[in-house]
Amino acid sequence: MKQLIQNGSGWIHRSRHKLATAAVSALLCLIGYHAIFGANGFLVFHQKKAESQKLEQEKQTLQQDNVRREQEIKALKSDPQAIEKEARERLRYARKGEVVYTLPPASPTPAKMK
């Protein structure tokens, strides 16, 4: 009977050890899955980083455009040549003795029928 009890307690000890190892392994697998595919996992981090770089590039492009437009506005406020250029191009103004020819906008040509 003593031997049966000892064998039973040894079996329980080995079973507990295997069960604990399996539980820790399952927990590590779950944590690894969450680290890669979870809401704040590696894949989401990679997507957000790419989006951030794209937005940063767009921001730089817009800042350059703003600087260019500010320079254009400054020139239109103070530079007579820039003012004259805009008046000639947009308003079709001309000096005395000049003739301005305006062409109609190009209309799309229909495709030839075969």
> Could you name the ranges where pLDDT drops below 50 across 5 or more consecutive residues?
none
How many structural domains?
A: 2
Annotation, overall tally of beta strands: 0
Task: Please give the count of helices.
Answer: 3
How does the helix and strand content classify structurally?
Answer: mainly alpha
Radius of gyration: 39 Å
Q: Bin the helical content.
A: over 70%
Major beta-sheet overview = none
Would you tell me the overall average pLDDT? 86
| Strand content bin | under 5%
Inertia-based shape: rod-shaped
- C-alpha termini separation: 104 Å
State the order of secondary-structure elements, H for helix, E for strand. HHH
Key descriptive features of the protein:
114 residues; mainly alpha; 2 domains; 3 helices; 74% helix; 0% strand
Can you characterise this structure?
This protein is mainly α. It folds into 2 domains: 1-37; 48-93. 74% of the residues lie in helices and 0% in strands. It has helices spanning 2-37, 42-78, 80-90. Helix 2 (42-78) crosses helix 3 (80-90). It starts with a helix and ends in a 24-residue tail after the last helix. The mean pLDDT is 86.
Q: What topology does this entry show?
A:
Layout: H1 2-37, H2 42-78, H3 80-90
What's this, in brief?
This protein is mainly α. It is built from three helices and no strands.
